[in-house]
Amino acid sequence: MFATLSDRLAATFKGLRGKGRLSEADVDATVREIRTALLEADVALTVVREFTSVVRERALSAEVSGALNPAQQVVKIVHEELVAVLGGETARLTLAKTPPTVILLAGLQGAGKTTLAGKLALHLRNEGHAPLLVAADLQRPNAVDQLQVVGAQAGVPVFAPEPGNGVGDPVAVTRAARAHAEAKLHDIVIVDTAGRLAVDADLMKQLRDVRDAARPDNILLVIDAMIGQDAVRTAQEFQDGVGFDAVVLTKLDGDARGGAALSVVSVTGRPIMYASVGEKLTEFEAFHPDRMASRILDMGDVLTLIEQAEKAFDAEQAERMARKVSAGEDFSLDDFLEQMQAVKKMGSLGKILGMLPGMGEMKAQLDQVDDRELDRVAAIIQSMTPAERQDPKILNGSRRTRIANGSGATVSDVNNLIERFSAAQKMMKQMGKGGMPGMPGMPGMPGMGGSKKSKGRMAKSGKPPKGKSRSGNPAKRAAAPESIEADSASAPAFDVSQLPPELKNLLN
């Protein structure tokens, strides 16, 4: 997603690192690189001019010249302006005061309206609504059948009184759909309309008639994100012909440039509400301008990652795992399998890792991530007996050979899995003790002050901690303060004459 644009901007900002002060020439060179990157991304020329003008003006202002790190300040400015170009705030659906809320989908043929109708219906169903899909595209061959298939996959009913394929009146279908939704207590109606290969008068007239019959609360324009500036021209024509409230971008995962997303809001004045980021029905999300700007600048999208994790992970399962870790119980292969299956529900591993900050430099490695590896690991674990999953130490050579044959893997694969699991098990035990390997300052960690092992190592090194040294003289040891936290270095000089007679005799 926006890979080319992200790479160009990252290379641009890299040249600013280490500069304590930015001259006007540095700012001009940076703005020039940004302009080139946006033009190569197929962003509309008017948008590029306005964007670079604002960035240059702010970069030469006092907020950058007085900053401790001018380079980071410029990145902050670009991020804020990207958020503004993408719409500023997250757009929301307008819900009708009296249900049902009618959503009309418009767009050209091939933009992905029918599939997106199913994705939107599933998204709204997961939010607690009761949507109804309406097949009002009666011209494209098999459009009605496709919507019925998509509706069945999403678990949403489809209102399709006409067979389509050129048969039926979409206006009559739309008018009947509202009455059907009221009778069946559907609070959301999503109307899938016909498209054309290009904008023409017949298309606009039909859409206006369907619009008047549906009385929609929201008109969403579905745009293919991969067509660049053509999306802007299409949006303008639909705005003039029918009007719309917001934009939905499809195929955003395959858009390496970002021209449509960065142009359509500024040109049309309408926000981007949703984005389709994959082929699966679940790969659909609300469009957040601030998060998308962070993705473009390789700052990650941790909030979206957290939201996906909350949906994928079972709360009871997570609580059970937390209790198990805190109690110091062994982390079994069954637990390992449960966690893997939860991660798999979140989607592609490459996409998950791509949401982390700073992963833009590892695009080649992320592209090579094989999601089938989780399936291979699951097959190995499922080929084990319950006793073997609970106690992998009993896995001898013959057992490992049996597991490898049963899962279609090799013995080496089984050995690697056991090694990785052992490392994960040790980490879980360390977490249960209150420490985290590799994180300084945490109690219970090797080499840190909170663990017994640490104290042992310090003793062996011959460098005891400050304030805890003990004298070799028994008299001085007895006279030392009982509090171990006392600072011996700052203690006053000891006077032998103050000792009791018994201790004086020991010194003589």
How far the N terminus sits from the C terminus, by CA atoms, comes to 84 Å
- Give the strand order of the largest sheet, numbering strands 1, 2, ... along the chain: 3-2-4-1-5-6-7-8
What is the top-level CATH class of the largest domain?
Answer: Alpha Beta
Number-wise, the strands total: 8
Task: Give the overall form.
Answer: flat
Total helical segments: 24
State the secondary-structure class.
alpha/beta
State the CATH superfamily name of the largest domain. P-loop containing nucleotide triphosphate hydrolases
Return the domain count. Answer: 3
Radius of gyration: 32 Å
> Which strand-content bin applies to the residues?
5-15%
What is the CATH topology descriptor of the largest domain? Rossmann fold
**What's the helical proportion of residues?**
40-55%
Profile the largest sheet.
8 strands, mixed
Mean pLDDT: 79
Report the CATH architecture of the largest domain. Answer: 3-Layer(aba) Sandwich
As residue ranges, the low-confidence spans are 436-468, 480-494
Summarize this structure as a short list of keywords or feature phrases.
508 residues, alpha/beta, Four Helix Bundle (Hemerythrin (Met), subunit A), Rossmann fold, 434 Repressor (Amino-terminal Domain), 3 domains, eight-stranded mixed sheet, 8 strands, flat
